[in-house]
Design goal:
The chain is mainly α and about 190 residues long. It is built from 8 helices and no strands. It has helices spanning about 1-15, 15-30, 35-65, 80-100, 105-125, 130-145, 155-165, 170-194.
Length: about 190
């Protein structure tokens, strides 16, 4: 069915690991001003610790059978990967501080870490949409950094929520709560620290 195929593509293209990686590289390049090489290097380091390494841990869990799928559809399986992700974020934060990363990039990394803590807490009881949380948080941070015209990024973020419901991975309530939590955490933490 075409609807399901489109929903699957949206879910994968705008998956949390992808969005976080792109967002961190964009922020690093922006925060380093004219030094594109340094910005890219710091963005890659931030993405490695906040996105790539935790995702590799998840893929390993899927391969060994410890996790059902790479989106961790069973919310009871989320706590371990989220805590591993948090440990990776803390290590990455240390590396970025040591490398002299700009405050804006560090604020985004901390916002991601706080988001992981909130997601781990909620996932203990309920299956909030982390896809929607990351998409909404990314939109808020992009708007704060690049201006209100990036409110247009809310269109793909809404498509992410639609895709999660269309694939029956989440209910509308789980998507709405994820969106609200992601926007509030990212906006609040990033704004306070940048």
């Amino acid at each position: 069915m075409i609807r399901e195929r489109v929903a699957r593509v949206v879910t994968e293209v705008f998956a949390p690991a992808v969005l976080v990686s792109v967002l961190l590289v964009l922020l690093a390049v922006h925060s380093e001003g004219g030094d594109l090489r340094r910005g890219l290097a710091l963005g890659v380091v931030a993405a490695l610790f906040e996105s790539v390494l935790p995702f590799l841990y998840i893929l390993r869990g899927v391969r060994t059978g410890a996790l059902t799928d790479h989106h961790i559809g069973d919310h009871r399986q989320r706590r371990g990967p989220l805590l591993v992700g948090l440990g990776s974020v803390v290590a990455g934060f240390g590396v970025l501080v040591w490398a002299g990363a700009d405050r804006e990039l560090l604020a985004a990394v901390v916002a991601g870490g706080v988001g992981l803590v909130v997601a781990a807490g909620v996932s203990h009881w309920w299956k909030m949409s982390i896809h929607s949380a990351v998409a909404a948080g990314s939109v808020v941070i992009l708007m704060l950094v690049y201006g209100w015209w990036l409110a247009l990024a809310a269109v793909p973020a809404a498509a992410v929520g639609w895709s999660r419901v269309a694939l029956k991975d989440h209910t509308v309530a789980q998507v709405v709560v994820g969106t609200l939590v992601g926007a509030a955490v990212a906006g609040g933490v990033f704004s306070a620290l940048r």
